[in-house]
Predict the 3D structure of the following.
Amino acid sequence: MIQEIKIKNFLSFKDEVTFSFEATKDKFAEEYQVVEVVPGVRLLRFAMVYGANASGKSNLLKAFEFLRTFWQKQTTNVEDSTGVTPFLFDPTTPKEPSRFELIFYVGGIKYHYRLELDEKQVYLEKLCYYKSVQPTMMFVRELKNGKSVINYNSSVFKLTLAEKEKISVECLRNMSFFAAFGKANASLPELDIVKRWMGTCLMKMIDPALSLTETAEARLSDDTVLRKYLVDYFKKTQFDISNIESQSFEDNSLKQYDIALVSYKTFFEHTVNNNLGNEKYKLPIKLESYGTQRIFGLATAIYDIQQKGGFLMVDEIESSLHPKFLEKLLFEYFNNVCQSQMLVTIHDDSLLDLVNDLVRKDSIWFTEKQKTGTTDLYSLVEFKGLNRLSSIRSAYRLGRFGATMI
């Protein structure tokens, strides 16, 4: 699980900001929304970010997405861009490195990762873990004379000189150590567990323009447990949908190019009541509403993170969803207790009326754009007197917490 991230000089975050999943002492819905990942460390399973358009909400998600992509991105060209974008509304920041710090837990062990880089090269990459209160350095990678130099903790890793040289050759100055580690086909149990978490537990960011249907169909075609989960989900939450069927087929029209294109067909079975009684009809997914298609994709993604204890980012989660359906989506997510986490951006302020009913105060964050173009990031619980407010939603609309268009 992720504890916190610090971001500096990335997109609209000029100055360092900190986002944290750490829970307060609030006991509301603790058994469903808080995980004590190790004794004394209580982490939230869900957080949502409010803010005006172009205030930087999505940029918080993009920071996680950048790290997820950068860790996997392999290259053979030292001139390729790292993909990072600094704060551009300033004469000095484009010439300075972007900085990230991530604290996370895997298998009950705390890790602290640091990264400093610009568009051309990595200046610092470091991973520590905690056997006790004090951190133990696992590796540190620095830029010296235009080349990456990696130092390993000999008490943690038993690497031969040949293994070190192999990783060093692959670790170009514009790529992550973890990408080079994978490219070198190296294997170290202490690093494999972290690399596996980076590659399988951090899910691709979902934005409103991303179609989830094909991915969900592919997952559904050979997973009977997922099929049952989705059918039960739709029966609980919506409509007249009583079953979901899926099949795959090979498109032979592309064989002339030696390509086998596998396509999927998904049908939703609807039960309707008419003058003939209860009848069942099948409707292909492409004829379902966009809201139904989006729920189909979101529910599949949530199922995946629940199975693997993953981390899911959703930009504008309310897109194409009725507010009550969004409430039900979150209710079903909370009801399945596990170590998964979700971070979402949202404009629909109706959830603020459900503080201490569906959502916790410490799960609410805000972004506000300053006149300088930089984004401030802060939590609802930083404000005093919340318990005296008759309505968090009304206070937000009146500008009590900032992060609005007014």
